[in-house]
Amino acid sequence: MATTPFRNVQPLLAPRGIAVVGASPRGNRGSRVLENLTRFGYAGQVVVVNPGHAEVLGRPAVPSVRDLPDGIDLVVVAVAAERAVDVVRDAAERGIRGILVIGSGFGEGENGRERGAALAELVAKHDLVLCGPNCYGVLDVAGGAAAYSGRIVDPLEPGNVALVMQSGALTHAVTDSALGRGLGLSAIVTTGNEISATVSDYVAWYAEDEVTEVIGVFVEGLRDADRFAAACRRARERGKAVVVLAAGRSETGRRAAMAHTGAIAGAAAALDGLLASVGATRVDDLDEFRETLLLMSALAGRPAPGAAGVAALSISGGACGLTADMADQLGVALPAFAPATARALLAGLPDFAAVNNPLDVTGAAAEDPALLAGALRTVADDPAVGVIVFAMNVGLAGPGQEEFYRGQARILAEAARTCAKPIVLAAMTGGALDPGIAAQTREAGVPVLLGIRPALSALRSWLTWPDRAGRPSEPPVPTREWPAPTSVAAGADALAALEAAGIPVAPFRLVTTPEEAAAAAVELGGPVVLKVESPDIAHKTEAGGVRLRVEPASAAAEAEALLAAVARAEPAARIDGILVQSMVAGERLECLVGVTTDPQVGPCLSIAPGGVLAELLGPVASRPVPVTAAEAEELIDGSALGVLLAGYRGAPALDREALVDAALRFSRLAAALPGLAAAEMNPLLVGERGQGVVAVDCLLIRDDD
Fold first, then answer.
1. How many CB atoms neighbour CB 210 within 10 A?
2. What radius of gyration, in Å, describes the C-alpha atoms of the chain?
3. How far apart are CA 353 and CA 342, in angstroms?
4. Given the DSSP bridges, would you call strands 698-702 and 676-686 parallel, antiparallel or unpaired?
5. What does the H/E/C string look like for 351-368?
6. Count of CB atoms within 10 A of residue 463's CB?
7. What global pTM score does this model have?
8. With 70 as the cut, is the pLDDT of residue 647 above it?
9. Helix, strand, or coil here: 313?
10. pLDDT of 305 above 70
11. CA 4 to chain centre
């Protein structure tokens, strides 16, 4: 199914036959693979490679890989690291392209690095598709291809969720803790060190899989961000949700620290921006990961909700308060009920009840279950409500309380059978789930989520996912030559690059003497700004290299004083001259449009208020370059900048359209410059609506490492 630019992982996930090297009657990881193949009903040929036995666990054995019969697509290597490379070499020479290396020892220490390099060389030479090393392996549930050395929770329900995880051990945190709640899996793939096949290849494969509707991804580090983005887009185009949990925080490169953007771009902003650009869903922890997968799995195939609002109900006033607080924190809309809804609720609830969202059905519902049933029917008819959530105190009650909570679950199940909108049961806390509650809700199609924070996060993701289509694929931006003779382009070189990109720039002249500075000031009409031109000074103000509001008459003296101050502060710096630039007239808002290059994602653009506000207002979002107009709008509205542009506290509205256009052009410039580490227009001055924008300074930094 997978095609270029993705590796064809069919030999790993749908092999005609499987050979297990190293399985032993005494039991080991290879033996566990055989057990899993039997458990999941793999119908293809299975052969063991073990020179000491004619059969292992009922499977025929041959002495070596060279003795394998035809029709074997996948060789599972379950031997020690020092023997594994030879086994892979034998399989490659035998013409077998699918390889699974379970063990570790291919990256750590000198011997490990040598073994890893040897594996990589074999992969390249023979065009192998290799899973691992250092992984559990792969399980494709529908085909029974359980080339998997880990223990798998029993029962594992077949379903529509493919787990693709760089950590094998963390699969248990998802599957085991969801036991009994209907999280059905189409696949479990653990990718390990990814010498060959990566997360991207498996996501692309399951994007095409007829059974899979949701793909859950755990990454510790992306090796191929562009391919991962393409795989996520493929899934999104086919209507499949990709839910991503990422560990670690990326750091901007050493040279990027020279630009202010490195300080305002949040630590995880690059990966967040990448996922937003491809329509994927980012989650923050394993609880949210599991609950989001479970909810999206349960509601897959349902039409998009007609409204984004959530109606929350409980029989506990305290639960209503906590739910309201968490919904506000997470950005989950709890709309006020329509007047007709409110009147109907007041008529059906006790006279001491208050109608709010969340709705406290009151403890009277414990004695009169019809109160809850009626409230559910009423809120379901509200036009602002897209989904209904019932906040239950616990998922598993103590002795003597079981029937009380099972009764609530029964009411939810009965309501769900006739309700066109999804009904979700959310326990206020995590923990175990009463089997009686599980049975009733599953039969009626009511998802059960554990923990109010992960439950509401999952609801937010499901409600907003239809609108997160991501950007369409675009052809690459043509490469431009670096605009300066050194790795740091500033001053005249950088401003000229902006002009060539179509970005308005305040008029400037580059001069070499104080006398020429005076002449340029006269030509530009003053007042002007004087800036030292030096490839060695990134922040000119700190070195005394900037003079503001200089009139032509004093330009020569100010230029001479500037050069003297810089010589004292930076005696070793190369001085290429003085930039003389027109002062921009009128009140304008300072903005920062910057790019930092993330080690995984690549160059990412941010937009923020400039000047002293840049770092004061905290981290801002980013998107991979080149950005789209819609993404530029999202970046603007994701910070205080959107409010400032609209006209804060009676100020006139500013030229948002011109800012968006400049950001698009700057992002394309950044995408066109090879080896870019950081880039920044700071400040970019935004005038009132219709007055446009003007760039007065720019810094471009290339990574020459």
1. 9
2. 31
3. 11
4. antiparallel
5. CCCCCCCCEECCHHHHCC
6. 20
7. 0.90
8. yes
9. strand
10. yes
11. 23
